[in-house]
Design goal:
Elements: E1 2-6, E2 12-14, E3 16-19, E4 25-28, E5 31-32, E6 40-43, H1 44-50, E7 53-61, E8 67-79, E9 82-91, E10 96-97, H2 99-102, E11 105-109, E12 116-121
Parallel strand pairs: 5-10, 6-9
Antiparallel strand pairs: 1-2, 1-12, 3-4, 3-8, 6-10, 7-8, 8-9, 11-12
GO molecular function, one term: peptidase activity
Protein name: Clan AA aspartic protease
Keywords: Hydrolase, Protease
Length: 123
C-alpha cells in the first residue's frame, strides 16, 4: 500500500523513491495525474542527477490538444515495497505519476485539504 495526502492546491501527492543508473536513490513527492497515461514524469534536473539512460523520443498529446515531444528514459522506482522498472519522461514541469504506474492498482482520494490518498494493489 502507498499512502499520501491532498495538498493545499488540491493535488494528490505521494512519496516514492527513484533509483538512478548508479544505484543512487532520490525521494520525490509527485502529483498523481490521471490525465497522464505514462508512468513517471520528472524534471530534467532530477533525470540528470540520477544519470538515467535515454531510450528515445515520444510524442504526447497534451490536455489542450497540442503535440509535444518528450525524451524517454529507463528508470526504476520503489513501488509498493518492490523495485519496478518504469518509463520516465523528462520535462520542465513538476514530478507526476501517471496511469501507467497505477496500472493494476486502486486509487482512492479523499477530496479535501489533508485528505488521504491510498493506492492498493488490485486482487
Amino acid at each position: 500500500m502507498i499512502l499520501g495526502s491532498v495538498n493545499a492546491n488540491r493535488e494528490a501527492i505521494i512519496q516514492i523513491a527513484v533509483l538512478g543508473d548508479s544505484k543512487q536513490v532520490k525521494s520525490i513527492r509527485p502529483v498523481i495525474d490521471t490525465g497522464y497515461t505514462g508512468d513517471l514524469m520528472l524534471p530534467r534536473e532530477i533525470v540528470d542527477e540520477l544519470g538515467l539512460t535515454l531510450r528515445g523520443i515520444q510524442d504526447a498529446i497534451l490536455g489542450d490538444g497540442s503535440l509535444k515531444m518528450f525524451e524517454m528514459y529507463a528508470g526504476s522506482v520503489i513501488w509498493d515495497g518492490q523495485v519496478r522498472r518504469v518509463e520516465v519522461n523528462a520535462s520542465e514541469t513538476e514530478s507526476l505519476v501517471g496511469m501507467g504506474l497505477l496500472e493494476e492498482y486502486k486509487l482512492e482520494i479523499e477530496g479535501r485539504y489533508g485528505g488521504m490518498v491510498k493506492i492498493t494493489a488490485l486482487q
